[in-house]
Design a protein that fits this description.
mainly alpha; Growth Hormone, Chain: A
């Protein structure tokens, strides 16, 4: 997290003070590295320090703060120059960098490196003085010791480990369907979509910003009560329907005209898509990733899944303009079809992790030899 924050601070400063495309590109590269690194590390850290009964809510708080940041940028982007926004974006990175000096290391990381005394001190700090941490500490040590018997696996080894293959399929599958829902493209091109629909851009982006935070709060309050699978299924169904509505609006649109019914379908579809994506597909894949991988494959498997996620995102954003030129309605009908496949994928393969410790989850999914 330290490395990520330093990269992001440097990246935002480079963007803010860039006077040519070279420095701007370098800044964006550092930002990409920093965001890519922290996008997996933070959910893992949160999952490893929180008790099982609150883990989903705490993990999704990460998504809430991301939505809050996006909403803040949507609002302030109407009033500030992009260089000013870049400088403002460096402030949270600096605040987190300072805050890292005051937070404990993950108990499971301490157990992995045999720092048992620090493990118990950290658990006491996290759970409170009156909480009996001995049973939890013993369970963590036992699971880490079992995983130690397996060699630390490289990327190539993952695909030859029979017991790890289902986890890789779940991880890569969730990231694939998350990105191919089209959310990244909708967020990146929201302004132009609203403009083509004849809807005021400022109002449209403000509405999108306004729905993100309440939706995330709803998930935080329900994810440990309802579970991950129901929210993922609800999210996928909603995204499927909304993508179809957007595609239908383009299909019915007559060239050179702005039709009221088509504009309504488009606006409802866009806002609904963002809302439904936020309650499940937006953050829960990262929550599940932080829960299912054992320590001996966590680094390599997590890195593979994270890189794949950002690669899929790049593919969608890069190809969006080309597919829209080919067929605007066809593009969103494809997104709708992918979301339909997502429902089946989640129903058959994605496990429920609600109310179980990380050790219980990993023991049920990964049988160590």
């Amino acid at each position: 997290m330290w490395i990520s924050d330093v990269c992001c601070i440097f990246g935002w400063l480079a963007v803010a003070f860039a006077h040519d495309t070279m420095l701007l590109t370098i800044g964006r590269l550092f930002l990409g590295f920093g965001v890519g690194l922290i996008s997996y590390v933070v959910p893992v850290y949160i999952a490893e320090i929180t008790p099982k009964t609150f883990r989903g809510g705490f993990s999704f708080t990460n998504q809430l703060l991301q939505c809050l940041g996006i909403s803040l940028m949507f609002f302030t982007g109407n009033f500030f120059h992009w260089r000013t926004l870049a400088l403002l974006s460096a402030i949270p990175c600096a605040m987190q960098l300072i805050g890292l000096f005051f937070i404990p290391e993950s108990p499971r990381w301490l157990a992995m490196y045999g720092r048992d005394q620090e493990l118990e001190v950290t658990l006491t700090r996290l759970r409170g003085e009156n909480f009996d941490i001995l049973e939890e500490a013993a369970e963590i040590r036992k699971t880490v010791e079992i995983s130690r018997r397996e060699s630390q696996s490289g990327i190539k080894d993952l695909f030859h480990m029979r017991n790890a293959q289902p986890l890789i399929i779940i991880g890569l599958g969730l990231m694939l369907v998350q990105q191919f829902s089209g959310s990244a493209a909708i967020s990146a091109y929201a302004a132009s979509i609203f403009d083509k629909a004849g809807f005021p851009i400022n109002i449209g982006t403000t509405i999108l910003a306004a729905v993100l935070v309440p939706q995330s709060i709803v998930v935080i309050l329900t994810v440990d009560r309802w579970g991950r699978r129901p929210l993922l299924l609800l999210s996928s169904i909603g995204v499927c329907i909304c993508s179809f509505l957007i595609g239908l609006s383009y299909y019915l649109q007559k060239p050179g005209e702005v039709q009221t019914i088509c504009s309504i379908l488009l606006i409802v579809g866009i806002i609904g898509h963002v809302s439904f994506f936020c309650i499940g597909l937006g953050g829960l894949p990262w929550v599940i990733m932080s829960e299912i991988f054992p320590v001996n494959v966590k680094v390599t498997a997590g890195s593979l899944v994270t890189v794949s996620s950002w690669f899929f995102s790049w593919v969608i954003i890069y190809s969006f303009n080309f597919t829209m030129q080919w067929s605007a309605s066809g593009t969103y009908f494809i997104f709708s079809g992918v979301s339909l496949v997502t429902i089946i994928f989640i129903w058959i393969l994605v496990p429920e992790t609600k109310g179980r410790t990380l050790e219980e989850i990993q023991a049920s999914l990964f049988r160590f030899s």
